[in-house]
Amino acid sequence: MRKLGLGTACLALACGLGLPGAHAADNPDAGIQHLRNIAGGATNQVATQMFASGVRKCAERVDLISNFLTKGTQSSALLFVPEREPDNMMVSISAEVQAEGVPRAYASATFSPNTAIGCGAIYETVQYWTESCKDVAAKTFKGGRPGGPLGSEFSILTIGPWARVFLIRATSTSCVTIKKEVLK
pTM of the entire structure? Predict the structure, then answer.
């Protein structure tokens, strides 16, 4: 049995318990809003709710990214909006996204106002595929350039200047992908 180092033990502990002082309110659901079937309407429900909650500086980015992630899909999302000064704090969404012809995905996007570019943003999608990573790379991310390994288990595809796909072999015939893009 391999002995876990202090760093790994601390990481596991932080993941299980959360960071001390990270929650301003005693109510664990304060600032968290649940939206169901968000892709079904004529307007972007994520952007509309964020704007109604006071998120103005990142409104355009929220609209752009949430449309990109959910348009034409069956999706539900959790919005993470601080109760105080939401226009000056990071906000985030987590979504379950089901598009036709591809596996269901977990999608996450985080927005940070007051950056040099106005509103910085990043999004990630996580998907489980019943095909090998080699097949997923060739079919789904064709045109991606191999970027080598991340460590010993993850391989990387470069799909844009600030976009990468991490491929993780789940079994000999299945793969997990994490697509990540930083918007500048």
Answer: 0.81
